[in-house]
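To the structural biology subgroup,

Please find below the input and predicted structure for Polysaccharide biosynthesis, which we are adding to the shared reference set this quarter. The sequence is reproduced verbatim from the submission form. If anyone notices a discrepancy with their own records, reply to this email rather than editing the shared folder directly, so we keep one authoritative version.
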Amino acid sequence: MLEILLQSGRRRSDLFRCILMLFFLPVLFLGATIPVASAAEYRLGSGDKLRVAVFAEPDLSGEFEVEGAGIISLPLIGQLKAGGLTPRELERAIAEKLADGYLVNPRVSVEVMNYRPFFILGEVNSPGSYAYVNGMTVLNAVALAGGYTYRARKDRIVILRGGRSNDEELASEATEVLPGDIIRIPERLF
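Predicted structure (tokenized):
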């Protein structure tokens, strides 16, 4: 009799675990953070640090930074425009340059190691440049900058994207921050 009770208890326990897994696994996958900019979408810009790997050619591989004008300097091929390209587009551009008289069928991989920083200005305690972290919000950025000053107007936060003033958008504390964003916290009138 005891054996039957133990077996039915195990079956209930197993059933309970299965139900939990069926319920929580989709929740975990739906709630998982998706990268802000996947490799297919993310556009490189000044300040991005990249790892470039040319397979079977360690002398051509290494870590490189996209310079101010969006240029990357690589061994053998020299300067190459990287700003505005996706990592996959840069891979193709490097492979084309290497195939043009240097290597036969080069295989290239480009990985973003560190994203360019974002900037926060205005009514925060420590305005300046900060390292971008995937999934960060305006509230996270404000916290990194030491919090709001007492004069901050929290309902009129502005984000400048793409480096052009016509790309300004109003933001809330929950707005996602992207690499290179300029966040401005205005002063309230009274």
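Summary notes: The mean pLDDT is 83. The chain is about 25% helix and 25% strand.

Regards,
Lab coordination
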